Amino acid sequence: MASFKLAVRFSGKLVETLEFDKDQVTIGRAPDCDVVVDNLGVSRVHVQIERTGDFYTLRDLKSNNGTFVRGEKIAKYNLNHSDEFFLGKHSITFLKGEEDTEDEWLDSSPNTEVIQGGGQQGRDIQGMTMSMDAKELALMQIKKKANLAAYLTITTDTGFRKQFPITKTATFFGTNSDCEFPLEGWFINKRHVVLLREDSGFRIIHLGNKKPPKINGQEVDDHKLKHSDVIEVENIRATFNIGSP
């Protein structure tokens, strides 16, 4: 499969160009993202690029301030060479490996799933800047530290229990070998579910198009986790716990 590049800009000025040859690339403020965007207007894990064969999909991971393509706030977008997407004042240009010329812009029709709130409102959010005084920043840091400790208690079919601390910004369930919780089955995607560690708590998101996870027996696509929630993903059953094991 061909590699691809991401050209990262801040206020129109090129910051860096990164090259990848992998099926998933995460972009956000967290230091363990593949592309780190150091801006408070960007969520810890803001957006993900997924490669399937020769096709690339941009997927917003329920970010606070949204991801924008051509002024529209998107949930999912099929990327073409030279497409540009925005995260606050940062923009990122997608460049397919076999078409290296960054100056070339393709005039192709977008294949976009649009969220309400795009248009002029979207453009206003896209260009916004965040400002906060020292007191607000200190309170945010205190809240962040208070909510980031959590772990899963996993129960196997034989009754064996194991505790798994959640230390990464994004913990994945799926068939990919790099997933923290490997799964098998026809109805499981490469990265099927992600457990996100956010500033305000933890969230589980269904990334695939098959067999969503269950929380407390109910199928969900996006769920803000609470203490003692029971998570079921294929053959894994785990209890979510706030605090340290």
Automatic annotation (TrEMBL):
User: By its UniProt entry, which SUPFAM superfamilies does this protein fall under?
Assistant: SMAD/FHA domain
Annotated InterPro entries: Cell_Proc_Reg/RNA_Proc, FHA_dom, SMAD_FHA_dom_sf
UniProt signal peptide: none
What domain of life is recorded for the organism? Bacteria
Q: Which Pfam families match?
A: FHA (PF00498)
Domain FHA: where? 25-74, 171-225
The protein depicted here goes by the name FHA domain-containing protein
